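Dear support,

I submitted the protein below through the web form. The confirmation email said the job was done, but the results page showed an empty box. After a refresh the structure appeared. I'm attaching both so you can tell me whether what I see now is the final result or a partial one.
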Amino acid sequence: MIEVPAISFCITCKNRFHQISQTLRKNLDDNCLFQDLIEFILVDFGSTDGLQEWVRSNFENELRNGYLKYYYTEELLSWHASVAKNTAHLLANNEIVVNLDCDNYTGSFGGRFLMRQFIKNPGNCVVHQYGGDPYDGSFGRIGMRRTQFIEIGGYDEEFEPMLYQDLDLINRLRVKGSPYIFVPDSRYNRAIRNTKEAGISQTDSKLGWFDMYQINMKRSLENIRNGKLIANHGNWGIRKNIYDIHENLVNEFKLIHTHDKII
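What the results page shows now:
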């Protein structure tokens, strides 16, 4: 009997209501027949555009049965992609963790499609659902086993707030021995396009798009050249002052499962 891996789609958002209001309902509907094997983790990093109220008003059933899990924190004052993504992945419960940017669509039965990729590739692979166009918004669609993500130290939080963190994660995993599975199927990687300016608008950084990219790329290449494949020295993601939809404080033991080995 084939064991089907369960999937956690990890979504981060800060003042991007105009986009997640288009994607979240569609993604939940497109995967609802498999919700016993799928969860959507949505972490709101202090949005002031009505996101929390909208989630409360429109997803009561999904929140009640755990298909959608909503968390809120104000600990990230300005946007940092690596910190945000690490936090969402730490809150995931399932074997497979998948970064799903808030402007991305899974596609119809996209979760089932991903399950099949991991069944066909049962080792510690990294599945990249990138469409091939660097501006189509799909480059960050990366899936792997949760144990891999923890062992590699997640996304590098010493990077500048945006850019290159996805490629760095993939390259560190590949050098560490994870097979790279490129899946450019356009049915499952559609996204809302952003301008470069919109992509970095919440960072509160004086650096421009190109400067962030160059700095982070240089850091990544140097780390890999020196064999520094595990990021963040065992301390990554936000692990305090996170609240669930019921305004309950999330215990740190929830963020770091007792069976996980943090390096």
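Response: this is the final, complete result; the empty box was a page-load delay. The mean pLDDT is 92.
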